[in-house]
Write a structure and sequence with these properties.
This protein is mostly helical. It is built from three helices and two strands, in the order H-H-E-E-H. Strands 1-2 form a two-stranded antiparallel sheet. Strand 1 and strand 2 form a beta hairpin. The mean pLDDT is 93.
């Protein structure tokens, strides 16, 4: 039972990091690019380093969907939903 709780905790942390990545990505659209060395820049770098190895393989199979001038990252949605389903099963 302890191992399942640990796996659930790790998956929860990954979900929070994915949400953080989405917020930081949107912050560029709202506030513009982060200044080098700023908290937002460092946070974006850290979150991207953790989440990109999870998203990149899915993104190779499922590229972003282009709708006009906007790209929708389907890999993000698929990974987030897959983690949600795994957490429900566990």
């Amino acid at each position: 039972m302890g191992l399942l709780r640990l796996i659930d905790l790790v998956l929860l942390i990954v979900q929070f990091l994915l949400i953080g990545r989405a917020v930081l990505d949107w912050s560029v659209a709202i506030a513009g690019p982060a200044m080098p060395g700023s908290f937002r820049s460092r946070a974006t770098t850290a979150v991207t380093k953790v989440t990109e190895p999870i998203l990149a393989p899915v993104r190779r199979v499922l590229p972003p969907l282009r709708v006009g001038g906007v790209g929708i990252d389907l890999a993000f949605i698929v990974v987030f939903l897959a983690i949600s389903i795994l957490r429900t099963i566990i």
